[in-house]
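User: Can you predict the 3D structure for this chain?
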Amino acid sequence: MGILTILLLACIGVCAGLMSGFIGVGGGIVIVPALVFIMGFTQHEAQGLSIATMLPPIGIMAFYSYWQHGTITKTSIGYAAIIAVAFVIGGFLGSKVALKMSPNLIRLIFGTFMLFVAFKMIISGMAFFTENND
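Assistant: Here is the predicted structure, written as structure tokens:
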């Protein structure tokens, strides 16, 4: 592994970490496209690597920061535990389905999902301007 590869991977990691800490995304939305389009990984390789990347650090420092700020409560920790267990099950089932699909179909589904979410977020974010102009 060359120095350029190391630097590119580090940049992808920093961008994913920044986005994760800032708005709660990073793994799939940042890492997968970067690995596919910058590093030349296949869709399946990128998805597997993204998941492997997130296993140990999955936002530990970002979580800690939110905890210190008081936005994470003991009740929400219980919610997170339930989601985490379900996430493990869903991740296992999702990987089984994905490995049986064409990488191009997965890319189409992934892109369509991101486009839909982006549209919904933009529309809901525009409420900020209408609320402040009244």
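Residues 1-69 form one domain. The first helix runs from residue 3 to 23.
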